[in-house]
């Protein structure tokens, strides 16, 4: 019988793990290089993944894959068109209101906010906004100003290509999403065929857990964002804030980062209320605080527990770190990939913790000695269990 040297076995396992680490690094590097062109593909992949369960449900009811994909795609298109028809005119009116209010914001900044800051801090902020000082500053740094001007002109010359790229991406996303939904099961089968057969069961289990947790989280979080944005927008419009709809929508859209949506929303709403009332209208400010308090309570005790729950299992701090780290490393593409990658990492960490608690490293090699009946009048019985067996059986 051939015996394997434990040292050689450990080296082989280390080399195998090193190979997988190098593969992961290479994939990350390629994603970083192709980041600018991968955004529409990632968006379409997410849409295809989110729509696949509904397509499968229609297939189980007797419809063909092509018909099911067409129906789901048309449903998504109609929902998007309905949202645009309703929201675009409202957003346009809010933007016009904001533009008309810009002189009031300028007067408030120069006449109230900056003098208050100077009085509290002692810094002469207003002197930096003096016209003559700005002219002298430009004269003293004309080379840097020329460089900035050149940069602006270069950006303006490239703006046509940027708009063209944006239009191409907008056209590509629905086309790619349709093909991803149609061929989703085939893509899953091909990826599964590449996994080593010794690990197929574990990989299938981890993929299923990741898909269930992340899919439920994204669908639920999307509904939470819509609900929270609607509460803020309708509430602030009712209390009389002219820019309430726009601020509420912004707060709802960024509420996927815990506490950031409410914080940014209430700061913008307070500034808008002060400028609108030309001072501190305490009744309006209190009503805005009531709206955000109600929104937070509904989100914390109704929307999130019912729609999201603990599907992804990530702490809010981990969510914030994942989004910021993804944006820092890969830009907007990284922010799109942040939560999916965080969900995968979370599932892998749970699996690693499970393996660790059942390993010899955690349990040790010494047998555990338990004295049964020591606390009673019965005769003590010594039970020896092997720590390598988590169930305590020999």
Automatic annotation (TrEMBL):
List, alphabetically, the InterPro entries matched.
Answer: AI-2E-like (IPR002549)
Cellular localisation: Membrane
How is this protein positioned relative to the membrane?
A: Multi-pass membrane protein
UniProt keyword list: Membrane, Transmembrane, Transmembrane helix
Q: Which domain of life is it from?
A: Bacteria
Regions crossing the membrane: 20-47, 67-91, 161-180, 229-250, 256-275, 282-298, 318-349
Keyword Membrane applies: yes
A Pfam family reported for this protein in Swiss-Prot or TrEMBL: AI-2E_transport
**Which family does this protein fall into?**
Belongs to the autoinducer-2 exporter (AI-2E) (TC 2.A.86) family.
Q: What is this protein called?
A: AI-2E family transporter
* Gene source species: Luteimonas flava
């Amino acid at each position: 019988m051939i015996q394997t040297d434990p040292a050689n076995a450990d080296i082989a396992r280390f080399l195998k793990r090193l190979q997988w680490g190098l593969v992961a690094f290479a994939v990350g590097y390629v994603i970083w290089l192709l980041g600018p062109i991968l955004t529409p593909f990632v968006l379409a992949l997410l849409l295809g993944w989110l729509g696949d369960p509904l397509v499968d449900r229609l297939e189980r009811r007797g419809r063909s894959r092509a018909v099911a994909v067409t129906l789901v795609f048309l449903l998504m298109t109609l929902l998007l068109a309905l949202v645009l028809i309703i929201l675009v005119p409202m957003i346009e009116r809010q933007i016009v209101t904001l533009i008309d209010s810009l002189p009031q914001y300028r007067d408030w900044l120069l006449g109230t906010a900056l003098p208050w800051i100077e009085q509290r801090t002692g810094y002469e902020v207003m002197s930096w906004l003096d016209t003559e000082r700005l002219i002298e500053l430009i004269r003293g740094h004309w080379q840097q100003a020329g460089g900035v001007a050149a940069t602006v002109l270069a950006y303006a010359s490239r703006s046509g290509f940027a708009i063209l790229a944006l239009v191409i991406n907008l056209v590509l996303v629905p086309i790619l999403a349709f093909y991803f939904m149609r061929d989703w099961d085939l893509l899953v089968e091909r990826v599964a065929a590449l996994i080593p057969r010794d690990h197929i069961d574990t990989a299938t289990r981890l993929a299923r857990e990741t898909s269930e947790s992340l899919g439920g989280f994204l669908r639920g979080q999307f509904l939470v964002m819509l609900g929270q944005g609607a509460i803020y927008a309708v509430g602030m419009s009712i209390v009389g804030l002219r820019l309430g709809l726009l601020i509420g929508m912004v707060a709802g859209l960024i509420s996927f980062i815990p506490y950031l949506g409410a914080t940014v929303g209430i700061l913008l709403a307070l500034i808008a209320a002060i400028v609108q009332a030309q001072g501190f209208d305490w009744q309006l400010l209190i009503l805005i605080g009531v709206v955000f308090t109600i929104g937070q309570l509904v989100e914390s005790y109704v929307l999130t527990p019912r729609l999201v729950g603990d599907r992804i299992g990530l702490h809010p701090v981990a969510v914030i770190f994942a989004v910021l780290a993804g944006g820092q490393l890969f830009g907007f593409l990284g922010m799109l990939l942040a939560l999916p990658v965080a969900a995968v990492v979370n599932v892998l960490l749970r699996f690693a913790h499970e393996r660790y608690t059942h390993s010899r490293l955690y349990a040790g090699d010494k047998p555990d000695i338990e004295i049964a009946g020591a606390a009673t009048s019965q005769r003590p019985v010594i039970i020896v269990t092997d720590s390598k067996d988590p169930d305590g059986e020999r």
